[in-house]
Amino acid sequence: MNVAVRYYTKSGNTKKLALAIADAVGVKAEDVSVSLDCKADVLFLGSSVYAAGVNESIKLFIKNNAENIGEIVNFSTAAVLDSTYSQVKKIARANHVKISSDEFHCRGSFAFMHRGKPDKNDLKKAAAFAENVCSKRQ
Asked: Is the pLDDT of residue 81 over 60?
């Protein structure tokens, strides 16, 4: 099974999760400016919420890499919203890409909110989540 990890972040919160997930599944985490050069059976795709929406870079990544994505597994951080899942699901479906119901989300720090998030415990949970996702698919 070919696994890839891509993410978009402004503050670094989602990158922290991406690195923990990538380490857990033995691949390199790269930002969404790096296209998929081969088919990823499982793509862990990380995003954050900015002004109540995911960044345009996530939309373009899915659109431009749709034929190389077997299934998206969403992970995200946000200070206020509970998840980016519904937004990423809508983008994936519009591009005929399968999205897993498996998802990982945690709070991200923003200004004075949720300082120190994601923390070590969140990173451990993200790694365990990724390992579980991959073990279910083998």
From this structure: yes
